[in-house]
Hints:
Blueprint: H1 14-24, E1 29-32, H2 40-47, E2 55-59, H3 64-72, E3 77-80, H4 85-100, E4 110-113, E5 116-119, E6 124-127, E7 130-131, H5 136-147, E8 152-154, H6 155-162, H7 171-185, E9 195-198, E10 202-205
Parallel strand pairs: 1-2, 2-3
Antiparallel strand pairs: 4-5, 5-6, 6-7, 8-10, 9-10
Amino acid sequence: xxxxxxRTVMAxxxxxALYVARHxxxxxxxxxxxxxxxxxxxxxxxxxxxxxxPVIMLTAKVEETDKVVGLELGADDYVTKPFDxxxxxxxxxxxxxxxxxxxxxxxxxxxxxxxxxIDFAAREVRxxxxxxxxxxxxxxxxxxxxxxxxxxxxxxxxxxxVWGREYVDxxxxxxxxxxxxxxxLEEDPEQPRYxxxxxxxxYRFRADG
Length: 209
């Protein structure tokens, strides 16, 4: 990373990592899961309450549940050891590039469906009049669903639009972020009113009226 122009700061355990991340305010965190004193999952539970800084989790664990737990806690990407350093560098650059890109905008000034309102110009989402805090990735996913309300968007289409074409096979990423949006926007996430699953195909946003 240093050879490619990045300034890096190291931490030797989870508690130190949390302290460093709070005070250095990095553009991106590379986070190992297996750390002394505080593991990566516990780090994420604390860190995501404070910041939306992008996080790539690094782990020797290959179980699917560990990957899903990391994403559920707010990780943006997940790399399993052993990995090639060029692969990691590509993931870092792709994530920073994705977050640096302008958020999508719409010619329509706003959108409303029931108690949900989206101000596209301000990139602000409100539910029952209260602002809903969304990460950049969550907003981008919601934007594409809403702008295609009533239409089924296939898994690979959403993954390419939100994460990039190199992520079209990462269905777990999409499922986790859909669940996160439902928890923030739906009265009952298990019986969604807005974000509907089209089994085997993708997702559809249902707008009132």
